[in-house]
Design goal:
single chain, 292 residues, Glycerol uptake facilitator protein, four-stranded mixed sheet, 8 helices, elongated
Length: 292
């Protein structure tokens, strides 16, 4: 038995990366969903933070307010927009090719407007003296770059969770729970240090109405940096390392009838029971073509 089988003439389809938003959803519906979800996240979460400062509540209450509202909005609106509610998450989707850059910009605009509107409503109900749930911690105004790193690490955990969980349809039932809990434990872990924002849209409105706009850059640079690192790690996980582009005799990539690049890949040969076939103790491989 040879170590490599003959190249198949058929193609194995690689699972498509789920696109955000779904191609079946009109953009206006996705944008409305992003507005509602981001507004709810900031109004409930930052509102809980404002009341915590005003009435002496606990960080635990604020963390769960953010986590529970995010979890709920994911289940309600995820079908329509992918439930980003956060420019850093949209940035992660764009970096990994799961969202177009144009749609990302549209999401950013809507998310930021929603955050400002939610903060304005908090001010209307409890006043700006409440702090409006601003993203502020012990590092914010004393060690800015440490605050940036904290926000980057927190956002990395959030974005990598979103990217990996939403890629697997079998995990759809627990998507909201997983993402909401990550947000919750991130806030519990680092809320005293930076406020635990991880979200430029969550921080903008409260910063405007509480005169903390001077430190807002921390909550842009940190989350976007964390999303960048998460996107790189995600691509390393999902990249098929056993494939290379199939080329013609001139070295040009070969395309299929739809204009897609064809890759030549290898994988272990398995028997009818799913066991890896070996010859003289060496794993046997087969070659197949893959449309991407």
């Amino acid at each position: 038995m040879s170590g490599m089988s003959t190249l198949y003439n058929t193609y194995d389809e690689e699972p498509n990366e789920p696109v955000v938003p779904s191609v079946d959803v009109p953009l206006w519906k996705a944008l409305v969903a992003e507005f509602i979800g981001t507004f709810a996240l900031v109004f409930i979460g930052a509102g809980a933070g404002a009341l915590t400062l005003q009435q002496g509540g606990s960080l635990l209450g604020t963390a769960f307010a953010f986590g529970l509202v995010l979890m709920t909005m994911i289940y309600i609106l995820g079908t329509y927009s992918g439930a980003n509610f956060n420019p850093a998450i949209s940035f992660g989707f764009a970096l990994t090719g799961r969202m177009s850059w144009g749609v990302m910009v549209a999401y950013w605009i809507v998310q930021l407007i929603a955050g400002i509107a939610a903060a304005a409503l908090i001010v209307y109900f409890v006043g700006s003296q409440s702090g409006v749930g601003a993203s502020v911690g012990s590092l914010t105004n004393t060690q800015s770059w440490k605050a940036v790193l904290v926000e980057a690490f927190l956002t990395f955990f959030l974005v990598i969770t979103v990217l990996l969980v939403t890629r697997n349809p079998m995990l759809s039932i627990v998507t909201g729970v997983a993402i909401g809990l990550v947000l919750t434990f991130d806030i519990l872990a680092a809320g005293p240090l930076t406020g635990g924002s991880m979200n430029p849209a969550r921080s903008l409105g409260p910063a405007l109405f509480s005169n903390n706009i001077g430190s807002y850059w921390i909550y842009v640079v940190g989350p976007l940096l964390g999303a960048l690192i998460a996107s790189i790690v995600y691509k390393l996980y999902v990249y098929n390392w056993n494939c290379c582009v199939k080329r013609d005799e001139c070295g040009n990539p070969i395309l299929n009838e739809c204009g897609k690049t064809i890759k030549e890949c290898t994988r272990p040969i398995r028997d009818n029971c799913g066991n890896v076939v070996k010859d003289c103790g060496k794993t046997q491989y087969e070659t197949y073509l893959l449309n991407i």
